[in-house]
Amino acid sequence: MFREEKVYSQNGEDGVLFALLKVVKNRTYLEIGVEDGTECNTRIINEAPLSSYGQMSSKQLSSDSKSAEARKQEMRRSPWMRGWKGIQLDGGHENPEIGLYKETVTINSIKNIVEKYDVNPDLGVLSIDIDYNDLYVARVLFDECKLLPAVVIAEFNPILGLEDKMVIHDSGYHWKKGEYMGNSIHCVNKFYSSRGYTMVFATCVNAFFVRNTSSPHPSPAVIQRWVDDSIKINPRFTKTIHFIKGNIMGRKFVTYNQAMDIKFIEETERVRCDIDIAVRKFPHFTELAKNYKLKKWNVVDKLKDQLAAYLREQIADSVIASTLIINTLVCLTRLF
Length: 336
What we know:
Layout: H1 13-20, E1 28-32, H2 66-75, E2 85-90, E3 100-102, H3 110-116, E4 125-128, H4 134-143, E5 151-155, E6 166-167, H5 185-193, E7 197-202, E8 206-211, H6 220-232, H7 235-241, E9 253-254, H8 256-259, H9 262-280, H10 285-293, H11 297-314, H12 321-330
Parallel strand pairs: 1-2, 1-4, 2-3, 4-5
Antiparallel strand pairs: 5-8, 6-9, 7-8
Helix pairs in contact: 9-12, 11-12
């Protein structure tokens, strides 16, 4: 039923989406996390011409080749591929010509963002690829913003396999190319199935869900086979995965039930605020900030060790404090 095909997507998501859109009535989309828009899940249905992308990135990839654009136009001869309108969001890029807007998406900002862009709750397609807080943001979109997309494309962390593992929520942390990111496909499936969705396919990093179907939920064996088969036919992914460093700092994963507990999420926000305040009170904060901006890493590394010790003294013992302190050290630039 589904055939993976890459035109502009990261892997074979374009081919899967092409098949699913045949039954989608509302032709609107929202995609969160697209970088500069050259390689993402909704470019295949974006009405913007190739010229609108300009020379935004040195990473123009093969996706901007004539053959890719020709394949896009061939797909768009199908009636269900035409007439789409939507919004793409990214924290570091903006290009209104293609409907891409620069927004920092967190659990605290997403409601205002949805209102700002007047997002239709009855979306045709929702795609989330934030690389860290994906399911935490999804919870707000579904439970508070009341979005009801027909199709959901949800990123998962393939390193975690079918384990019950998620990262600890941290609105200030951004993925740093390690395995401590996102959530397992098990957690993704548990979240969306609890909200009336059925997983119908998975590539090596993205799971596809459809709303209100009578299809039986896939077994763990079937899910694993989808991912394994997808990895086999995506040599680019297999090559890339070797560059992902392990969780060498020992940051803690939590279970789905623990992560989705509102009190737990509120606790992480409280501890995060405590850490941010403590960092700014660090005796050598100004010196640390100055050397970070000057990229004097030998000085920065020494001060980071002192800062880590200082934070552990200042922050009350907590299940999550240790990991959030490490996240802060990994991603200090947001504080300067």
